[in-house]
Amino acid sequence: MKNIFIKSTLILILGTSLAKVLGFVIKILFTRIIGEGINIYSLIMPTYSLLIAVTQLGLPYAVSCIMAKNNNRGIHILASIIPIALLFNIIIIVIIFFFAPILSNSLLKNPDTYYPIISICFVLPFTSISGIIKGYYFGKQNMLPNAISNIFEQVTRLILLVCVIPILMKFSVIIAVSGYIIIAAAAELVQIVIYLFFAPKNLKITLSDLKIRVPLMNEILSLSIPSLSGRLFGNICYFFEPIILTNILLFVGYSTSFISSEYAVYNAYVIPVLTMPSFFTMALNTTLVPEVSKNYKNPQYIKSLIRKCIIVSLTIATIYCIFLFFKSGTLLNILYNTDKGINYIKVLAIFFPLFYIEGPLVSALQGLNMSKYTMNTTVKGCIVKLLCLTIFSFLSIGIYGLIIAEIINIFIVNYLNLKKLYQLHYI
Fold first, then answer.
1. Helix %, strand %, coil % for the chain, to 5?
2. Which of 58, 260, 296, 403 has the fewest CB atoms within 10 Å, i.e. is most exposed?
3. Which is more confidently placed, 18 or 116?
4. Mean pLDDT of 400-424
């Protein structure tokens, strides 16, 4: 068991580290090519993340757990849930078309975000399907397909970014931002194709295999909905973040250009730099869920595993954040050729090691079938964060209101999750 976990984690770390490097190259090139268009992209990213969370329905996590626990054929699981996911995607896409004008003009106060928001519709179905297949391989603890598909996905994004976006920039920034979002659909399609290459070679599928099995579908949804709820509230919080920030800061006297540019600095430079080592902890978190779920009858092993994941995550995060506190300017100049966001990074770096233990704690609780509890902690953290953001934004301290709210949210969520694991005697 231990060897399988370590092997799976190492494969995922190697794959995701390379994909993460490619991802950072893509972000750097995109930021430099798009110029001021990064302001538009940053404003719609919360909407993008929320829609991805909604349309995935928490299915990757649920499929992973079902595959880890049961002996259901993979094709039965996929056939029972993919049609439901696609139908739900169609409903969400219709809603987006009706809601996009209100979101761009009334809530975000920026009409330029309309077409980029519409562009998200092209990405959603592909993201949903690739997420479900990813959950299938995670449940089998076969991390190689995920590692390789992630690399091919990022390579596709990089090639299309370099070849397509400069051409679209000749037309307009809005078209270029919209095109960059649609590129994600092509990248997800490549990822799905790579997954298919790893399907069993002797796989025989009959028409009966493709039928929707209602009991199996209900079992998957019973796991996915609580998981979705937690992630959904987190993304709802992220969705309202620029809306609250923009409207309150405009009210207290800040200009639209200041709000857009500073929020873009926060999202495009500060957060990516702070979360740079997250590929390592993400690999731990991903493999932790099926491992805990499969070995729930062995509490000593689970306890040891959780402690090790927390210690490793915290150690890596602490070393990195100390480096950032003193050398953030150097890193920003190397990566983005800018010094914007240095002060924001220094404030967040003091508290950000705690952010890195949030993933292992949540993954452990989800593996212990406590998704409802993690959902409740997420909801409480989100409510407090939005309240703090609202209050501090009225104090005319610019983006620092958002930074303080983020720090408070990290403390609350980690405290509640640690408290629960302590009560269960897993820490």
1. 85, 0, 15
2. 296
3. 116
4. 92
- For residue 171, with 0-12 CB atoms within 10 Å meaning exposed, 13-18 middle and 19 or more buried, which class applies? exposed
Task: List, as own/partner pairs, every contact residues 315-324 make where C-beta atoms lie below 8 angstroms and the sequence separation is at least 24, other chains included.
Answer: 316/277, 316/280, 316/281, 316/356, 317/277, 317/281, 317/352, 317/353, 317/355, 317/356, 317/357, 318/353, 320/276, 320/277, 321/274, 321/349, 321/350, 321/352, 321/353, 322/349, 324/273, 324/274, 324/349
Q: Are 50 and 233 in contact (CB under 8 A)?
A: no
pLDDT for the residue 206: 58
Q: Is pLDDT of 333 > 60? A: yes
Structure tokens belonging to residue 247 = 């409207």
Q: Are 77 and 66 in contact (CB under 8 A)?
A: yes
State the average pLDDT over residues 303-331: 89
Q: Which two tokens stand for residue 61?
A: 């996590």
Considering only CA atoms, give the Rg of the chain. 21
When pLDDT is averaged across residues 390-411 and rounded to a whole number, the result is 94
pLDDT in the model for residue 207: 59
- The single residue listed with the structure tokens 């709820």 is 229
User: Which residues, in sequence order, are CB contacts of 283 under 8 Å at separation 6+?
Assistant: 9, 12, 13, 16
Residue 326: partners with Cβ closer than 8 Å, 6 or more residues away: none
CA pair distance 344, 152, nearest whole angstrom: 33
**Can you give the pLDDT at residue 205?**
64
Domain of residue 295, residue span: 2-423
CB 199, CB 65: distance < 8 Å: no
User: What is the torsion angle, in degrees rounded to the nearest 10, for the CA atoms of residue 286, residue 133, residue 43 and residue 343?
Assistant: 20
Structure tokens at 291: 């491992």
Is the Cβ–Cβ distance between 224 and 61 less than 8 Å?
A: yes
Q: Is the whole-model pTM more than 0.90?
A: no
Smallest CA-to-CA distance from 213 within 88, 69, 67, 83 is with 83
For the chain, the domain total comes to: 1
